[in-house]
């Protein structure tokens, strides 16, 4: 069973989002997603300062099995990326909700986060995928 922390928001495309005290959002992929991908060998992070619309592909995670896009959970500008992933992409496997975060986003509309899935709804979503 995948870990789904209750304090985070989620996308159906398996990104997680944590609201930070300064209003920014930290984004990564869920425990479920990293388990499906298997051992990650490369993470392509977005450029700091780049702006994305909700649902835009903005990063790539590559495993021994496949490469998968990571999508912007809401519209916004990239404030920071996890540069440690260049040398340690396995951090996404080992700590998907901690050291494996991928980027930080300044949302164009802070309320847009409220429309994302809560933990219970995301859990039901991944269970429905089988």
From TrEMBL:
The keyword ATP-binding does not apply. Binds 1 lipoyl cofactor covalently. Residues 24-106 form the Lipoyl-binding domain. GO terms for biological process: glycine decarboxylation via glycine cleavage system; protein lipoylation. It comes from the Bacteria. Coiled coil: none annotated. The keyword Heme does not apply. InterPro entries: 2-oxoA_DH_lipoyl-BS (IPR003016), Biotin_lipoyl (IPR000089), GCV_H (IPR002930), GCV_H/Fam206 (IPR033753), GCV_H_sub (IPR017453), Single_hybrid_motif (IPR011053). One of its GO terms (cellular component) is glycine cleavage complex. HAMAP family: GcvH. Belongs to the GcvH family. The glycine cleavage system is composed of four proteins: P, T, L and H. This is Glycine cleavage system H protein. It comes from Ectothiorhodosinus mongolicus.
